[in-house]
Structures are given as C-alpha cells and as structure tokens.
Batch of 4 targets.
Target 1
Amino acid sequence: MLVTKSKKQGAESVWPASALVPLEANFTDKRGVIQPLVETLFRSAMVIYSKQGAVRGNHSHGTDWHYCYMLSGSMEYYYRPSGDPKSPEVLIVKAGQMIFTPPGVDHAMKFLEDTVWLTLSRNPRNQRDYEADLTRIQMV
C-alpha cells in the first residue's frame, strides 16, 4: 500500500491507493486502440529515455506527485514513506504499466534495460522549482 504523510483530501482523494496503477479498459475499434492513462490536472508532461543500469530518483517530493507510464523497457521501482528506515518495497514495472508517487514518498528507479517512459506531474519541471521541492536520499 502507498502511504502518504497526510490524509487524502480534495484532489488527493482521487489518487491511486497503490503504487502500481490499474489502467482503465482500453477502447478498440477498426482504427486502433485508445488506452486511458490519467484524467486529472497536471502541469508537466515529459518523455524520458533511460539507459540500462541507470538510476533515477533517490529522492522524495514535498508537494509534487507524478504518474509514470512505461512505453518500452522495464525498471525496478523502490518506494517507502519518507524518512522510514525500513527497506523500501520494490516493484518490477514493465511496458504498458503505470505507477504513481505522491508527495512524501522516497522513491528510486533502476532501469533493467533501455527504457522510454512518460511522467505526468503536478508541478512544472523547470530545474530550479523541481530541485527546490526535493529531499535527496540514497535508496539504490
């Protein structure tokens, strides 16, 4: 179960209850497939290319949250409540799966192969504001 520092209120009440986000059924017809991902307001959408063996994250966010949808490749996703001394939980996330990280969760990602993924975030991702919201940790 995903744990945050505060009780869910307002927009937070629609956050997923677990790190691995169940996707809604897709819509398929003769033209192809539409896969719904996120139906919420966010301020940043990025495509990230990560090389096999790379580690990203090793931090927590004060106010930011993000959905990460794997387009191709796979990763190990490490997460735990911020400041918890216990070992993090680990998920293997593969292409076609999505995870959610709320504020107040230590998280890191280790890429098992070259990977392309989307991140959809609450806050803008200019480097100054992004860095100001982070607490760096070492998990991986």
Target 2
Amino acid sequence: MLIKKPSDVWSSDITPRATYLRRRDFLAALVTLPITGRMVTTTDALTPRQAVTSYTNYYEFGSDKGAATTNGGAFKASPWSVTIAGECAKPGTYTLEDILKPHPLEERVYRMRCVEGWSMVIPWDGFPLANLLKRFEPNAKAKFVEFTTANRPQEMPGIRRHVLNFPYVEALRMDEAMHPLTILAAGLYGDTLLTQNGAPLRLVVPWKYGFKSIKSIVKIRFVEKQPLNTWQDANPAYYGFYANVNPDVSTPSYSQATERRIGEFFMRRTLPFNGYADQVASMYTGMDPKRLY
C-alpha cells in the first residue's frame, strides 16, 4: 500500500467532506452500472486528474477557475431528481436512480475545449444522451432540447453575485442531442463526479466550446423554438447558440486559432469542431460557419 505524506497530496485530490458523506447515495445509484467499454476518440495523453478537478468553469460557485473546488462543500448532490417537460409523451420528475439504472456507463475519452483558449483530454463515464431522450418519446414538435442547472443560492455562492441570469440554461438542436458523441456523464476518471465537475449529472458535447456542456442538470425540456442560452443572453458578441469550435472565428478580444492544453507549455493549433469534424460537420452543411460560434 502506498502511503503519502500530507505534503505529497494535492488539495484537490482530497475528497471534500460533503462528497465523502454522500458516497453511499452515489453508490446506491451507480452500483448496478457496469463500465461496459471504452470509447477513445483521441490518442492524446490524458490531462492529469488533479488539473481536471481543480481548474474548472462553474460560475454558480464563483468566476475563478478554482472557485467551485473551494466553495462547493455545501452543495448537496443527493438526493437528486431531473424534471422532464415539453414536447414529449412521458414528462415527469425522475430520480437520479431512474435516470441512470437502465443505462450502463461507458468510459469516453474526449478532448474538451474551453472558449478562453485552454483545453483538456478527459475520460468521462457516461452514456449516449440519445438513449435517455428516447425514453421520453419526444414528438414531432421537439426541435431543440433545453437543459437547466440547479439554482441554489445558499449552496452556490456565485449565484448571489448576479454575474449571470441564473439558473444557467443551455440547449442543443435535436440532431445534436441525439448524436452518439453527445453523452450524459455521471463519472470521471472512474469515480463519481465531484461538485466542481458537475455532480451528479452533466452534459458532454466534445465538438463544442465548454460552456455548452452544462453541469448539475435538474431539468430537460423539449421545445419547438430555439432557446436563448445563458451566455448568449449575457454577451451575444462572444457566445452564440451553436458554439462549435471554429479556429477561423475570433472573439472581439482574441483569436481562437490556437489553444493551450492544460499541463503543457506550448500552444497548439485549434482543430475545426475540436477534431471531430469527420463525425459532426455534416450536421451543419449549408450553414454560415460564423453562425456556428
């Protein structure tokens, strides 16, 4: 057994007390979910776990990259439920166990690209979002899927700063939501999600900028008209609806042509659709590429 001295342990590798105390609740939901296989979409080296769990964007806890790690101890991710609403045959409120149990988890290794110019390679434990959405039988009017994050000011101190119009809302076009690369993640590096990474359930859309991969989902709604996502509402000059990674589209302040992988020194060239163009570009045939941001 490897025993580490306190000085050898990263603070972000220490399980927060609140997470430790709710571990049995998570295990109850996940114990029947075997990891059925691994889908590797890149041969790039994984980003160290310490970086993935300490360098995050989660404005409900604060705007600093470490704010969710520092301020997330009071957040309660159990018990958890997700409300399903809108244009579907089976609306209702479903527990986390309802959401997860029919869907064996798979490990998915994805590149994840943030709009500020940094990126990571992360092994998520999740399942295709399409598998879940089909259960609720969306009807012909369902053109988009809207997601909403938990809105708990007492547990999420960043909300009290009113930096954004909370609750946080994101959305996908239906074909994007049903694409096999789009997953619901319940784990990371073989463990249940920590608060700062979106516990207990988050979206992962690897060909889009990071703000599209909404965390701590409490509501999924099928709608006919394109929703207004939170960052597009806050600053439409920077944040569009589609948010597909496009190195040829700069923000008003800086270029997106290069990125820095967390843990590396040198910049690297940003790839269209974050390297997934061969799998997803056909969904946007005929659209103005500048609309994809």
Target 3
Amino acid sequence: MPCINNVNTKGDLQMTQGKFEWNIEILNHDTVRGGFKFAVFDFDGTISLIREGWQQIMMPYFTEELMATPGGREKPVQELSDFAREFIFINTGKQTIYQCIQLADEIKKLGGSPQNPMTYKDEYSRRLLERIQHRLDGLKSGALDPRDHVVPGSFELLDGLKDRGVEMYLASGTDEEYVLMESALLGVDKYFGKHIYGAQSDYKNFSKKIVIDRLIKDNNLHGSKLLGFGDGYVEIENVKSVGGFTCGVASDEANRCGIDEWKRNRLLCSHADIIVPDYTHVNELLEYIFKEG
C-alpha cells in the first residue's frame, strides 16, 4: 500500500481512495528551524531494519521471566506482557542492559530471585541473533539489497543532509561492535565516518546524552543548530534537552510503510517537534526542516 507524505499542520491521517495519506505531523510550530550544522541519528528503527522484530523477542522472554516469579504466577499473562512492553519501550534508546536491569528489579519486586542483568542480556541477544542471522548472512553475501533493510528514504535523507553540509553522528543502544558491523553491511557507515557510537561493556560511561553533550562542547555548538532523528523516547528527549530540533520516526518496521501507532503515541509524550512514518518524501521533509522560521 503506497505511502503519501505531505506537510500538515494538523497531523491528520486520512484515507483517500483506499490509500493512507500520511502527512508530516507538526507538533511544535515555535521551534527554530534552518541553519542546522549537525544531526544525531538513532540506528535501529530510525535507519536500520536489520533488527526488526526485536520487540517480539524481548517481550515474550521478559514475560516468561516475570511469570516464573511467585507474584507473577498470580497475575494474568496479558497483564505481565503489557507491563513488560511498557518498561521495555520507556528504556528503548538506552543501552539494552538498562532494560535487563529493570527486568531484574521487577522480578525481585514479584518475589523472585533475579539473575545478573548481563545474563538476561546475553540470552536476549542469543534469541535475537537466531531471528536475524539470515538477514546478516544475506547482506554479507549480497543476496539481500540493503535498501530493503532500511527505513524507506534513508539513503536519500542522508544524502540530502550531506549535501547541505550537515555533519552526522550515529548513536545506538545496541552494542557498538554490532552497530559498526550492521551499518557497514547497509552501506550507511560512510555518512557518519568516525562518529558511530554504541553500547559499551562499561555501560555507565556511555549514553546518547554523553555523545550529544560532547558534540556540543567539542564544536562550541548552540543547541538550535542540532537535528535529532529517532524512533524512541530517549534520543528525542536528549536532543530536546539541549535545544535541538527533533524528528520522531514512527516507523512500521515490519511493513516498511505506514505508521506504528504505539511508537507515535510514545513520541508524542517525548515532545518531538515533528513525527513522520519514514523518509519517503524526503524533499518535502528537508524543505520543512531547513526552512528558517
């Protein structure tokens, strides 16, 4: 089903002749636009779709662990699943270990004996790798087209920002070794150069906020010159906290078209300046972002 994007000050989602017309949803008309020098991107769900479906791995796994506790056995499975989904999303954008730390905390609250959060992270990573290994193999061999594994319009957006002289940073909650590998497989690493950052084993010394604060300091940058793109709560708030302009990406990762309402609702709470489903109509998006006013 084709996606049609246009600038829309009301943010309506309408049906026209059986096709969804999704407009750029403008939430903040007062944020300064134009003159951007730097942009910070999240990776998974914002550019890369290699890990599409990670929620369908993490949520059932975390729900299993909650169900195995004394308190969990007394609760409906759906209630535990909804609860896991909520705290997983709140921590989306942070390093994966933080979701596992909260899982351990919730297990303890339910009367269980939690394992080390790293144990939960390792098991989640093992399950996720089983799901995505064929994608990694296909991209490595050339059997799969990288364009089919990015949010639609990603290359055009990155090219458009590059042409405008914007220096781009990539900051992910996924382990850095995987971000480096997967960004190279997709061919997007060239846009970011040395500015690709991911989760570290010493997790307390890495965060997207640390990357952004360092970017601001090293370049003596005013926050209004910073763009942020992300599909999660954390990266949007981090860029907004320094006065930047934020584009929330409510991407439907499975269908590569349309909007994920769950993402959109959470992005509304994060106070994103605009929300888009993807970058299909990149010219209109860039025109709006770089129009001073």
Target 4
Amino acid sequence: MRIAYLDCFSGISGDMFLGALVDVGVPFELFENTVAALHVGAALKRSRVNRSGIAATKIDVVVDGIKDMPREEFWSDEKTHNAMARQQSHGRHLSSIVKIIAAAPITDSAKHKAITIFTALGEAEAKIHNTDIEKVHFHEVGAADAIVDIVCAAVGAERLQVEQIVASPLNVGGGTVKCSHGDLPIPAPATLELLRGIPIYSGEVQKELVTPTGAAIARTLVSEFAPRPAMTTEKIGYGAGHRDFAGHPNVVRLAVGETAELRIGGNSLDASGTDEVVILESNLDDLNPQVIGYVADRLLSAGALDVFTTAVQMKKSRPGTVLSVLAPPSLEARLRDIVFSETSTLGIRTRREHRHVLARRHVTVRTAWGDVRVKIGSFNGGDSNAAPEYEDCRRIAAEQRVPLKNVMEEALRLYLDEKNG
C-alpha cells in the first residue's frame, strides 16, 4: 500500500504541511494556480530555510502584501495587526467560505476535504464559544491565509496519490498564546477540541506548535495516528515553521512510500489475510436523503473503509434507511461522533467482525494522458483481480477532457498487455 507518514515532532500548521508537500514533490505551481483561482487577495512565496541543521521548504501566505506570522507576533505587531484587522474587519462565516471553495476550479474530492476541514474548525469554535456554527465569525482561522492553507492542503494531499496518510502523535508545545480573545493556554481551546481522541504530548518547547488550522488538517486528512509503520521510503520532504528554535528542528517531515507489510485501514493483516473491522449501523427514518449523502462523504473522509445504505421498512410502515459504516477499530469513536452529530439517530449499533482480504499491490501504467496506478489483488500466489485507481482516472479525465470510461479502459488494457506480454 502506498502511504504517506507525517512526523509531527514539532507539531503541525497549515504552512508547514504545504512546505512538506512541495518538498516531497507536489508542484509549487499547482498551489500558485489554486491560490490565484480562489480570488481572496492572497499569493504564495516559497523559500529554502534551515531549522536547527535541517534544510526545509518554507511557504508563506502573503495577504495584501503582509506575510502570515505566529499569533503572538501578529497581535503584538501594531502595524501588521491593524492592516490585517482591516482585511478581516468584515470577517467570514462558514457559509461564505464554503461558497469560495465550491467555486474553486479543483476536484470535487478536494473541495469536499477542504469544506470538511473548515467545518471541523467551525464546530470546534462553536462549541468553545457556546454558539451555533453558522454564527461563528472566523477571525484568524477565517482569514484569507487559512483559506489558502486549507484548500492547498486538500489539493496537495490528493496530488500525493497515496491511499492513506498516517501521522505520529502530535507535539502541541506549551505555555500560553496571545490571540484576539487574550492570552490562552496551549493548546488553545479550539485546537484541543479538534485534537479530541488524537494522541498528543507536550515537549520542551513552550510555544504553540499545533495551530487550529494544523489540527483541523490533521484531523481530516490523517486516517491513523501511530508510530511509523514498516515501510519502504521513496520520497522525504520537510516543511518549515516560522520560528527557528535552538536545538529543536521546527519542521514537519513527510515520507512517502510503500508499506513493507500489508496494512488495510490502519490494521496489519496476519498471514491468513484477515483483519478486524468495526461495523457501525443506525436506522434512519426522518432524515433528508441529501444529508445522508453528505454524512457518507464525511465518514469516508474521516477514514471509514466503506459507507453504504440499505432501504428498509420500519415501524408504522415508514420507509427508512440503514446507514452502515465499515471502519478500522481505532476510528470507531471518531466515526460514531460524526453519525451522532450529523444525523437524527438516537442510537448506533456496533459490532466487531473479521474479514478476508486479498493481498494488494500497485503497478503504474503510462497512458497517452498520464500515469495511472492499477490496484492488483493476489490470490494463491497469482494475480486475480485488477482495477485502475478511480481517483487517478478521474483526475486525468477532468484535466485532459477525456471520457472517464475511456481512461479506465485504456489503463486496464495497458496493464493486461504488459501482464500477458
């Protein structure tokens, strides 16, 4: 399985993640074009910096000629504070941010991930301030720099073409941070809310190492927080933070490669090709079908292995829907929270089951329109099933304006020709 592993020994922020993506090979021009298309008055600047002996890529978001900076520096620098305050004076609510993202010329899956990240931010802010999510007035997290960070994070993660992003436990730092509400403990309340259920710790550096934007990105894009899995590393990238701490490299490290053992949804398979999954089910008879589709997308983005629905007839002869979620056991609590918060259900059934899974590997075929990965399932020592990766084919179809079915058929033909060849 092709995965990416995030080493968050110095936390994570949006710009650090973008720097690591560029350093590992995601084209900087992709981000530049994405930012220009957002029309939020922002631009990107790329540079190479050194953080305690490690060379890294630094990405700065420049809004109205002013760079983003750590929060306490932002609020203590009067000139910058006043200029940015004017830029943010009207603020943005979630609905306006969603409209900006929805209008962007990026893939539907990237749009969904970006909206999910901002929704997570809004939910955390709403809970901390005891208000409705649509009444949350985004300040630091709603500024143009955060929109840029989040949309580019979604676009860049998709371009990695990995099946899973795994991350280490997060070093959140310590001390206090200055913001619009005054001095807050680290991690800031909204950040800690976003990190609920995620392993975190505080090291020697007593500064804010995980920002709200970084926490929301990690919560949405990372499917598992665990020690580094056995993997063959192909690419390594370092994304730099703003500060340069003495004796502590303020970077996030991103490694991309193939797992050395088969891992499905965060679980290592044993020799018999089985793993354990949790199944969450809920009966719904009073929920708008449009909401069910949205919930399914959120669950898949949060790491569910599969989400499906079954039409049923419930009590009082009412038509209903059974929502079923297949997931790694480590994600049970997170996915259960999504079902409770997004649907009208009053209860969720859960059970553990074992499944038999074919060993999987990838080969890449080169079509006339671009490279496509083909997933191959092996049975009894031979290749039995092969299917082109949908996301690769969808991206090429959209970029090259070619029918999706043609791309999929051509990729499978090239694989079979090579196999039989």
